[in-house]
Write a structure and sequence with these properties.
The complex is a heterodimer of chains A (140) and B (141).
Chain A (H helix, E strand, L loop, with lengths): L1 H20 L4 H8 L8 H23 L18 H17 L3 H9 L3 H25 L1
Chain B lengths: L5 H22 L5 H7 L8 H24 L11 H17 L4 H10 L3 H24 L1
Classes of the chains: A mainly alpha (140), B mainly alpha (141).
């Protein structure tokens, strides 16, 4: 119960952080990506702030390897690099720049009632399904 | 630089880092939104615990704007992309984040907080790609 409550609160804090930081405003995201134009570097500070706190949170998690509720933590590896990682991230970056939305902020904007965010999120779910159910199977 | 908001963005970032820390320490899960969402669409022989934390975290994201608006006016999301561009962008983001195993949150925040080389390369790739596509859209076409 306590654990579930903390998960819900974590989601709310994450969303509020995204709103406050400017990440839920696509024109601000595009202003950050437009380095040769009227560049707005604000969003670099989001990453700085998040990592400043996250560094200690993850360091504690990796040290103890168990949660507050004594469950084991399984973290993904850090060094495995393949071409899917790079190509996939390139495709993601292209979509991010086209709309100015990445997954988290799009879901927050959907919650705020933006029809555009609904269209984006439905297409994103479809893209995920295509990857996980079609592409992954064709590759095998 | 007239839209420069370093303080708000830094505070927003601190909250995002706090959220990711709460989730890893309480549930042992990584606050990577693309992975959380995609996990909701795995339907085969999946135990209930697989879904519960994902549903709760996404529910938190969905209600965050309403809670925010209780205290202070919600900033506007200025969206200039056409509907067809939003569809193409969404498809690219969905497919790309699955292929690359993460997005801005999973790689850019959680992965970099863990000093992961894999996440550093992924983050450099999507930011570089974002720079190039934005340059082409604004300054070439």
């Amino acid at each position: 119960m306590m654990k579930n409550m903390m998960t819900l609160i974590a989601g709310i804090i994450f969303g509020i952080g995204l709103i406050l930081s400017g990440m839920t405003n696509p024109s601000k995201v595009i202003g950050f990506l437009d380095i040769t134009g009227n560049w707005d570097p604000s969003l670099a500070f989001v990453m700085v702030g998040a990592i400043l706190v996250g560094f200690f949170g993850f360091r504690k998690a990796e040290k103890t390897n168990t949660t507050l509720f004594n469950e084991p933590i399984h973290l993904p590896g850090k060094s495995h690099v393949n071409k899917e990682l790079i190509i996939g991230s390139f495709l993601f970056g292209a979509g991010w720049a086209l709309a100015g939305f990445c997954p988290g902020p799009a879901i927050v904007a959907l919650g705020a009632g933006y029809k555009e965010a609904l269209i984006f999120v439905v297409a994103m779910l479809l893209g995920m399904l295509i990857h996980d159910n079609l592409y992954e199977k064709l590759r095998k | 630089m007239e839209n420069f908001t370093p303080i708000q963005s830094l505070i927003g970032g601190l909250l995002i880092g706090l959220s990711a820390s709460i989730l890893i320490i309480s549930s042992g899960k990584i606050a990577g939104i693309s992975g959380i969402v995609a996990g909701l669409m795995q339907f085969k022989n999946t135990p209930k615990e697989h879904y519960l934390w994902r549903v709760l975290f996404i529910a938190g994201l969905l209600i965050s704007s309403t809670l925010y608006a209780l205290f202070t006016p919600l900033p506007v999301s200025e969206i200039s992309a056409s509907y067809s561009t939003l569809v193409i962008a969404g498809l690219l983001v969905g497919f790309g984040t699955r292929m690359g195993s993460g997005c801005t949150s999973g790689h850019g925040i959680c992965g970099l907080s863990r000093l992961s080389l894999r996440s550093l390369l992924a983050t450099m790739s999507f930011i570089f790609s974002g720079f190039v596509v934005t340059y082409v859209l604004i300054h070439v076409i």
